[in-house]
Specification:
The complex is a heterodimer of chains A (about 250) and B (about 250). With about 250 residues, chain A is an alpha/beta fold. Chain A contains seven helices and ten strands. Chain A has two domains: about 170 residues, 3-Layer(aba) Sandwich (Rossmann fold), CATH 3.40.50.300; about 70 residues, no CATH class. Helices cover about 35% and strands about 20% of the residues of chain A. Chain A is globular and about 45 Å long. Helices cover about 85% and strands about 0% of the residues of chain B. The chains are: A alpha/beta (about 250), B mainly alpha (about 250). At the A-B interface, strand 6 and helix 2 of A face helix 7 and helix 8 of B.
Chain lengths: ~250, ~250
């Protein structure tokens, strides 16, 4: 569904390359996590996919077509919820629909249905400042879903949350995904989160990024946190942490 | 909050009492009229002040402020859309703020005579630039991440402006208006001092030539009351409208 072919990229203000001849693929309906240390270029991969940056060479394909010929095929959810403070939760969710010129009545219907889906029906007319961190993140996720894209790019969506909310939202995200089976690319630096959520973990090692090491996660769905205690999962977790340079200073 | 209000009332009352005391000791109303003398004067001249002079000044203020808002907003939007224009104009705009209005206003009287436009021009000159710059800075405070998010949704330049930049700049717009109102009143009064046939500023100057201290102060008191009242109203509108700001 998504394919990077020999992509090379460097930010104009940097004197080093972010990625060089990078190739990888993501299949339709897969949940794939990308992990790596902070500042390793994980988010840059997203910026290339959603067109905020252009590769110097190489190409990115979506459904076999170069992405330069497509427009908003992916839905991007950044680390911060970025809910617009002057819009109510309902109005925030309507943003991608407004920009897509969806008729008003249909907007309202879709927003209501989505609010129900993410359990925020009672908050349609509240402002973001009245919501807790977890609720804001759910609202931001709902807004991302309303773009209607089949490819979701989630950039460390839970990293700013406290650990209990984080666990609850991971479980919730997994349920949502098991229901809709969109293709999800999930950037994180949390190894456990990556293992729990994904079918496949891609690890970023070096800079420039020349390849992504792939680790399949053989856990069945639906999953629960107990699965993480399996010895092979524990082993994988330790291995990944070690390979990412963890455990040493 | 209530405590703070009381404190400021107490300070104002204290200053008035002190003023009254000093004025009574000096006992020369053409040098320092007492607050009571000023209030008496306002009452004595109430018909002339409120029905003739005040409407004349208000007319200048309102027309000047309206022109400034339209021009200021227009320039702010334009500079935001076109960075080359910003580079070219921003320093010039800042430089014009250093021109002393009292020095340039007589020139406008030469150009436009005693008509309303010489006074409107002074008012515009004083208020246009603060509005343009404050609102422009408001546009600039737009979060880049939010802009990028909308871009990934496929937003056009128009969408970005109406859905993101304008709401971001709204608090700055209110600040600009609150700043511009007192300036526009001062601008109108200064222009009237320098050349006019009616208005509160003109009246104050006429009383000066008659060495009527209380008469000089009376229109000034009315001018600042107008400015304070209008700013108060705008603040209330702002509170009603911008409810989403974080506490």
């Amino acid at each position: 569904m998504l394919e990077f072919q020999n992509v090379t990229f460097q930010y104009a203000e940097d004197d080093y390359q972010m990625m060089k001849d990078l190739s990888f693929q993501v299949e339709e309906g897969a949940f794939v996590s990308i992990i790596g240390a902070s500042g390793c270029g994980k988010s840059t991969i997203f910026r290339l996919i959603n067109g905020l940056e252009q590769p110097q060479s190489g190409q990115i394909f979506y459904d076999g077509k170069p992405i330069s010929s497509l427009s908003h095929f992916s839905a991007y959810m950044p680390q911060k919820d970025l809910l617009f403070p002057w819009r109510t939760v309902g109005q925030n969710l309507a943003l991608p629909l407004e920009i897509g010129r969806v008729p008003k009545a249909e907007q309202q219907q879709k927003v209501r249905a989505m609010l129900k889906e993410v359990g925020l029906s009672d908050y349609e007319n509240r402002y973001p400042k009245e919501l807790s961190g977890g609720m804001r993140q759910r609202a931001a996720f709902a807004r991302t879903l309303l773009t209607g894209s089949r490819l979701l790019l989630l950039d460390e969506p839970f990293s700013a949350l406290d650990s209990l909310t984080k666990i609850a939202l991971q479980q919730w995200l997994l349920q949502e995904w098991e229901k809709y089976r969109q293709t999800v690319l999930f950037v994180t630096h949390d190894v456990e989160e990556a293992i729990f959520l994904s079918d496949r973990v891609l690890v970023v090692y070096d800079r420039p990024i020349t390849h992504l090491e792939a680790y399949p996660i053989p856990l069945p769905h639906p999953r629960n946190r107990e699965d993480l205690k399996r010895p092979d999962m524990q082993e994988l977790k330790e291995k990944l942490i070690k390979e990412l340079g963890g455990g040493s200073l | 909050m209530k405590n703070k209000n009381w404190l400021s009332v107490a300070v104002v009352v204290g200053i008035l009492l002190l003023w009254q005391g000093v004025a009574m000791i000096i006992n020369a109303h053409y040098i320092l009229p007492s607050p009571i003398q000023i209030v008496k004067k306002i009452w004595e001249l109430k018909e002339n002040l409120f029905l003739v002079q005040m409407p004349a000044t208000l007319k200048v203020t309102v027309i000047g402020l309206a022109i400034s808002i339209v021009l200021g907003l227009g320039l702010a939007v334009w500079m935001d859309e076109c960075p080359a224009l910003e580079k070219a104009l921003y320093p010039v705009i800042v430089a014009t703020q250093t021109i002393p209005t009292t020095a340039i206003a007589p020139l406008f009287v030469l150009w436009f005579g005693y008509s309303i436009w010489s006074k409107v021009l002074v008012t515009v000159l004083m208020t246009f630039f603060p509005i343009a710059i404050t609102v422009f800075d408001g546009f600039k405070s737009t979060k880049r991440e939010m802009e990028e998010l909308l871009t990934t949704y496929g937003a056009s330049k128009r969408d970005l402006f109406w859905k993101l930049k304008l709401p971001t700049a709204l608090p700055s717009f209110f600040s600009a208006i609150k700043m511009a109102i007192p300036l526009s009143v001062i601008g109108a009064a200064i222009a009237e001092w320098l050349g006019a046939q009616e208005g509160l500023g003109y009246f104050s100057k006429r009383m000066m030539t008659q060495l009527d201290g209380a008469g000089v102060f009376a229109p000034i008191v009315i001018l600042s009351a107008i400015a304070m009242l209008t700013v108060f109203i705008i603040t209330k509108i702002e509170e009603k409208w911008i409810t989403w700001r974080k506490d």
